[in-house]
# Entry
Amino acid sequence: MSSANQVAERDAPFQLRGNSFTMMVLKVNAPNSQDFFPQLNVKVRQAPNFFRNAPVVLDFDELPDTVVFDLAAFVAQVRAHHLLPVGFQGGPRPVQEAALAAGLTPMPTGRAAKLEVAKGPDPRAANPAATVTIEVVHRPAVVVTEPVRSGMQVYAEKTDLIITASVSPGAELLADGNIHVYGALRGRALAGVSGDINARVFCHSLEAEVVSVAGIYRVSEDIGSDFFKKPVQVFLREGVLRMDLLKTV
Amino acid sequence: MSKIIVMTSGKGGVGKTTSSAAFATGLALRGFKTVVIDFDVGLRNLDLVMGCERRVVFDFINVINGEAKLSQALIKDKRIDNLYILPTSQTRDKDALTPAGVERVLNDLSKEFDYILCDSPAGIERGALMSLYFADHAIIVTNPEVSSVRDSDRILGVLASRSRRAEQGLEPVTQQLLLTRYDPERVERGEMLKVDDVLEILAIPLLGVIPESQAVLRASNVGMPVILDEASNAGQAYTDAVGRFLGDEIEHRFVSPQKKGLFSRLLRRSA
Ligand SMILES: Nc1ncnc2c1ncn2[C@@H]1O[C@H](COP(=O)(O)OP(=O)(O)OP(=O)(O)O)[C@@H](O)[C@H]1O
Ligand SMILES: [Mg+2]
# Structure
């Protein structure tokens, strides 16, 4: 009986489970270049909150075999820019050994296609036969018709979440897409959790503990009385979380 | 066909044991053969409230462990026919409640009884999970305050996901709300939640509202289920709730403050 297993698991001192995380990759082409850190500095300053203490993987794949640089000092410099190197990919052997010695984790290199940026117009673009077409598959929304109770969590992976009942305080809704609640939203609703800044939260009665789009959130204290218990949509505009009353005709 | 009912709440001290004793007694009074089981292993309160604590020899855990027969552990109520108590152990802990053991005891009981009432311990750990796992019906005991409502909501979620009916994809456990220790005057002063506030959050049918009453403590001190105190508000409220459970249409009482005469108002002030 699985409930008994669950009991045992909950009493255990730890649980081991798999999880996947999205991390930035810092591609290191010329570590000795005088411009490296000034340019990194400019980049980080563009979105300090986004970068602050973000874990990064150092990609040494493009380094020439002959490169000589002080890896430990390099990592310290990266840290000084509020990025936290946690792992590395590729690179000449001495660099890999230095990275291991510095406590970085070798990351599997089964990576996605390289981004081709700033390389001028792609000659293949004119030839439709050669372009890669990405088929967009329709992923049906997750629909929940029962109340979402305190302590429950519902995640709509890579799609929208639709709740046709109320969401209790202490319950949590997560969606990579939009969240619709056709009842009172009293718990937490986090839309666009994988970073979709165009995701929105729609609800029939906004009484939420937390609402968020792509990580930008507002807690119930900051939800003005103009919106409390009203039909509302929540969305991002220019990086700021906004609310609008939904007009009911 | 016997029906398994769990009296549950999440939060402690809200009146589960009081309600279990009252409900079991009420069902037996209506002619149904009823047993009430104490799942609060290690604490053992039900037998006190039922007034049979001095007759406990064997208990639920002994039966689960095969140390005693069910017939040896079941205590027949002295006042009411058809009413039995299965007390729990005070010396063991909740790990003694093995799923297979609980299932076997419940199966044996369902051959004989119309209603099996499970008095859940507080919390959402093993004891509480075991008491609700096999339930057909849940009575959610809630006090009119925010933390109790929150915990009840949590328990409703557990019923919807971790009960046997949920795990096996059967008809869901049916649920009703029993709002206890309701004090209409404090509600009126805004110190407690209104019935409607609680219903809005929990969104399940209301079985009954049991008023805060001195009679409850008085009854439990003499080991008598409060439902037998027919003169008391609480006793009457439990009788109504049992009636509603069995399908009678009974209006809710004790939800608004009683009009008091000058005399009782004076008494109150000096109390
Ligand atoms: N309607 C009521 N009016 C006044 N007091 C009450 C009422 N209902 C319960 N009580 C009192 O509240 C206390 C807790 O009641 P009870 O033991 O039934 O709760 P419980 O939910 O079973 O607790 P636990 O979680 O510890 O098992 C007792 O002292 C009881 O007398
Ligand atoms: Mg109890």
